[in-house]
Fold this protein.
Amino acid sequence: FGPISLPPSLIPPTMDHVKGIVTWNINNINGILGAKTDDEDFMKTVSKHEIICLQETGPEVYMPGFKSFSDTRKSGKGGGVTTLIRNSISTHYSEVKQCIPNECSMNVVTTKITNNVSGFNTFIINTYIPPSNSRQKGKTTDSVANFDCLHDIISSIRANDSNDEILICGDLNARTGTTPDYTGFHEKGLIGIDEGDAAVRPLVIPDNAPISKSRNNQDTGSNSHKKPLIDLIESQSMLILNGRTLGDIEGKYTCFKWNGNSMVDYFIASSSFLKRVSTLRVGEHTLLSDHNPVTLKLCHKKSALPKPKQSPNYQDAPLRYKITQESLEAFTLGLDDADVAADLDRIKKWSDSASDNKDNAPVLCVDTTA
């Protein structure tokens, strides 16, 4: 007998069934005009995604069609996080209970799904870390303590299998500017360091991932949360996706307050997760919150659309430009060319379209006959 193929309806869901994840600090689920889950615009923004990660929810959030996992303050006021997973895949997700020291003021929910074929797990860590000036009775205001706790959570995951995929999302209240979140680069990729300054877990950006080594950020400021977050990312060989992923190459602001704007709502991924990344987009500002939703679109080889037939004079544009002396000279000369300017404008329009398109992102091609 040959191998038995299960019909799609009987194949257990994995991360390959997740097309989008949204993270959003919603400033309490109960607004001035009532529950935000009753607001049409709110539901339109979040319910189209398979996984919804909300911060500063106040009480736990429930939505029809989704299973809820929450970590809230006893008072039900301020703070709190909820991860909502669509019912069609939620039975294959489980919550990983975390032992958070009593003095830590963070909220965190960690969910896991296992790929029954590969045996690898995907962990999604939804967290809210209060600003350093936050005051809670019996809780520390030390910036390092909460990030140390987050570090321990990731380390406990890696202790079981270092190849497991990890994605951190949420409002970390850390302003990191463009401080490098890795320590160097060599032929194998970006490299993080552990606490003993020894190179561990090479952080390699896959060739097919629309992610740049350099990171942009409209928010050039910094605060006391910056160093512990950067230290955490380096020690765990992870990468900030904001400001370097297709759809958010500028590193857009995510929070708008009376005293200034900032980028504090993150997606941070392990090297093993990077192959899934398609686009990252910061949503439009609304009256529902002083934070904007941030959406991460995922791509999976099995669900990739077939490429359209192309002229033999065309080929796929490389996701990363290889710099040589010859290409650098050609690039410098090309900047003065009117056709190149038109192509750059076309690429920008394609990037905007790709980040907005739900299912059928256009394929970008370049003419190689010129």
